[in-house]
């Protein structure tokens, strides 16, 4: 495995971490090109706990990012100090990060993920303390996803660190007790996503394809 890019993501990156928060890491790697020519393709993702780490093979990460996947996409938008591995090919990927952005994919992904969080939030029993904590977490994710998605749609930039973490926490607590209050937030987001934004209709796959081919050429075989 050739690790190309990795960094700290999740609550630490957003500015929402507290004492006891897990430290989440995300990265992408290049499988040796020769492994793609046998009967069995190489494993495309490695997920571990303690520490919490997710690594995606380069092609899989590209597919996720081209589809607007919020979790995968943030890897190329991290503040510099949160990167732990930045190879030359990783730097090239960061440089073409806007090629992955498309209006339809961003809208569908961010609104879709936010709606999923709303459904989870709405199904929690707020009278149970453990369930309520989970509800507040879903609510924080909902608020973050809406804000990040709209920022991409309207500015073409993905902000990882939240401008006002305290407000997101406060809204998380409020929505945990009253999930119905989040309905207006989602409705407003849907309305704003319908307005013209700055993103192209579809991602620009050509730079992505070129980058991936350079990755394959650079990592032809398994190190001996």
Verbal overview:
The protein starts with a strand and ends in a 6-residue tail after the last helix. By secondary structure, the protein is α+β, with helices and mostly antiparallel strands. Helices cover 51% and strands 13% of the residues. A five-stranded mixed sheet has the order 3-4-2-1-5. It has helices at 10-14, 58-66, 70-73, 88-95, 103-123, 129-155, 165-177, 182-194, 205-218; strands at residues 2-9, 24-30, 45-48, 52-57, 83-86.
Parts with pLDDT < 50 across at least 5 consecutive residues:
none
Give the helix/strand class. alpha+beta
Spatially, the strands of the biggest sheet line up as 3-4-2-1-5
State the distance separating the first and last CA atoms. Answer: 12 Å
Mean pLDDT comes to 94
Helix content: 40-55%
Q: What Rg, in angstroms, do the CA atoms define?
A: 19 Å
Show the helix and strand layout.
Layout lengths: L1 E8 H5 L9 E7 L14 E4 L3 E6 H9 L3 H4 L9 E4 L1 H8 L7 H21 L5 H27 L9 H13 L4 H13 L10 H14 L6
Parallel strand pairs: 2-4
Antiparallel strand pairs: 1-2, 1-5, 3-4
Question: What tags apply to this protein structure?
Answer:
224 residues; alpha+beta; five-stranded mixed beta sheet; 9 helices; 5 strands
What's a concise summary of this model?
This protein has 224 residues and is α+β, with helices and mostly antiparallel strands. It has helices spanning 10-14, 58-66, 70-73, 88-95, 103-123, 129-155, 165-177, 182-194, 205-218, and strands at residues 2-9, 24-30, 45-48, 52-57, 83-86.
């Amino acid at each position: 495995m050739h690790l190309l890019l990795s960094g700290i993501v999740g609550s630490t990156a957003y500015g929402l971490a507290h004492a006891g928060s897990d430290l989440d890491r995300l990265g992408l790697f290049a499988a040796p090109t020769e492994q793609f020519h046998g009967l069995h393709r190489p494993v495309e993702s490695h997920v571990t706990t303690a520490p919490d780490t997710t690594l995606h093979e380069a092609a899989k990460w590209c597919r996720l990012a081209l589809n607007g996947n919020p979790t995968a996409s943030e890897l190329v938008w991290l503040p510099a100090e949160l990167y732990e591995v930045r190879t030359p090919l990783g730097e090239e990927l960061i440089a073409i990060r806007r090629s992955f952005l498309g209006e339809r994919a961003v809208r569908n992904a961010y609104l879709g993920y936010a709606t999923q969080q709303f459904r989870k939030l709405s199904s929690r029993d707020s009278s149970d303390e453990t369930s309520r904590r989970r509800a507040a977490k879903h609510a924080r994710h909902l608020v973050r996803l809406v804000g990040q998605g709209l920022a991409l749609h309207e500015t073409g930039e993905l902000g990882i660190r939240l401008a006002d973490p305290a407000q997101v926490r406060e809204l998380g607590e409020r929505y945990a007790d009253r999930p119905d209050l989040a309905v207006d937030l989602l409705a407003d987001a849907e309305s704003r996503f319908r307005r013209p934004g700055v993103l192209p209709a579809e991602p620009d796959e050509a730079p992505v394809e070129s980058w991936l081919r350079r990755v394959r050429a650079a990592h032809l075989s398994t190190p001996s």
